């Protein structure tokens, strides 16, 4: 392979990724894939400790950003050992009600499991699913749905 | 709340049942392409009875009011075209005794319903007849007595009898719908259990809206309802006795229970129980309180619904990676996936006739209500929309009721939730009138059978 060809390929890759990222910024604003990455709806349990994590459509897997948020929550919980929390799992409106109840429960539990791997006792964490019953954004569009697919950590005491 | 289930004192004497044959035939396989023109003559009332009903019920003309109930039911079914009473030439009392068939044929009526209402010991006595205009004869006659407050139900029972005589299938008019009445912002929606007659009248609210309630379903005798309530912020399946108003939690589960339904014999409740991110299907026997685990799989298993013989259960699972419909024996054995089309499938409900399963389908951003055979073949999509789900069958397995939501902006503007019904053929799609926004409808069985 000539150097020229390698250069050209690299350029292609670079320009393609520029195109892609430009595209992503343009069309989805505060989303990566369809996971919400913005801060509009986020509240804070303490300074620098976001209260919620977001999910992709029909997914319960934690993203890299979600894991970082949960690690911050875990260290805050370790420092405040008297505080218990409720994890509230939610789904967007684009699913059947009953399945979404199960999905919300699964999302909250994946957040719970992660907190537990960072040493937080399961006794301090309870879980509730609201399915699609309590959206934060009423909009019928992909950005609003991404804000609604979430698990929110709320102080229980 | 006590009076929600009225007990009807029906003394039916069937004068001429089933003997006569008729030229009238209603084609029920093709929906409303050619609705049968018929005349519902106002029921005649003698002056004395009229005055007494006026005092009792505040209705000027109870005969005309009952006829309107019948007329509206028949029109809503999509199979009949009730003619405008202004065109009727014969007086109700005379028509009831001896219709002049030529007059009715002139306005193109193929069938005629006539009747008479009387007050007897403060009760309402109705007699009605169904006439075949072309054959020139009476094909059905029936009389019954009930408490006068039940006058709308009289209209529903007449419709059921006429419908059955003309289509050969049982009716679905003397029935109720239980649903969730909705108010307020989308982000903090207030939801109450509500019950109404099938035609949208006599709405009663069964809960106050203090806690979120979802997915109510009748038991086979329509006296009990099982539903999900967030009472004390603990989502659990509840049982409500409609007449007494007594509510209780079903079972003692250490987590969320949801998606409840009764077994066809009414003795068990089948539902999902979610724990540690896994939802499985359980049953609880209402008498022995014995709990049985039916599915055991790390996926989400929910929305269970029994076949009418109680031998099988259809349910929703994402064990294949996505939401699909499965069928198993009622003991949980022989699990078999039946949905294989493109898209996601949810909310399977077994038809009361046993031959079909209705479902919600999500494909390419659209929601569909459809039906398939119980082995998954013969999928038919009846209606497409932005958002709709949760079909429930009419007791004769002929009509589906479901709810539909509209798009909204970030402030919630534009959002509505309404009940809709559609014929099994895919024709006759109609909004069902409710006092408030509404969702999660469930159809009762016939109140008098």
Mass-distribution shape of chain A: globular
Q: In what range is the share of β-strand residues of chain B?
A: 35-45%
Q: Strand pairing plus helix content of chain B: what structural class? A: mainly beta
Helix content of chain A: 40-55%
The CATH class label of the largest domain in chain A is: Alpha Beta
Note the main sheet of chain A. Answer: 4 strands, mixed
Q: What would you note in describing this structure?
A:
The complex is a heterodimer of chains A (157) and B (449). Chain A is α+β, with helices and mostly antiparallel strands and 157 residues long. Chain A contains 4 helices and 8 strands, in the order αβββββαβαβαβ. Mean pLDDT of chain A is 87; it is low at 9-28. With 449 residues, chain B is mainly β. Chain B is 12% helix and 42% strand. Chain B contains 5 helices and 31 strands. In chain B, strands 1, 2, 3, 4, 5, 6 and 7 form a 7-stranded mixed sheet that branches. A 4-stranded antiparallel sheet of chain B has the order 10-9-8-31, with no helix packed on it. Chain B is globular. The model of chain B is unreliable at 1-22 (pLDDT under 50). Chains A and B meet through α3 and β7 of A and β15, β23 and β27 of B.
How would you briefly describe this protein structure?
The complex is a heterodimer of chains A (157) and B (449). By secondary structure, chain A is of the alpha+beta class. Chain A is 45% helix and 20% strand.
What's the topology here?
The complex is a heterodimer of chains A (about 160) and B (about 450).
Chain A: H1 3-28, E1 31-32, E2 35-36, E3 44-46, E4 49-50, E5 52-54, H2 64-79, E6 85-90, H3 97-117, E7 125-131, H4 142-148, E8 150-155
Parallel strand pairs in A: 6-7
Antiparallel strand pairs in A: 1-2, 3-4, 5-8, 6-8
Helix pairs in contact in A: 2-3
Chain B: E1 13-14, E2 36-40, E3 44-45, H1 47-57, H2 62-77, E4 80-82, H3 92-97, H4 101-106, E5 111-120, E6 123-132, E7 137-147, H5 151-167, E8 176-183, E9 190-197, E10 204-205, E11 213-218, E12 224-229, E13 236-241, E14 247-249, E15 256-262, E16 268-275, E17 278-285, E18 291-293, E19 301-306, E20 312-317, E21 324-329, E22 336-337, E23 344-350, E24 356-363, E25 366-373, E26 380-385, E27 387-393, E28 399-405, E29 417-423, E30 430-432, E31 437-443
Parallel strand pairs in B: 2-4, 2-5, 3-5
Antiparallel strand pairs in B: 1-7, 5-6, 6-7, 8-9, 8-31, 9-10, 11-12, 12-13, 13-14, 15-16, 16-17, 17-18, 19-20, 20-21, 21-22, 23-24, 24-25, 25-26, 27-28, 28-29, 29-30
Helix pairs in contact in B: 2-5
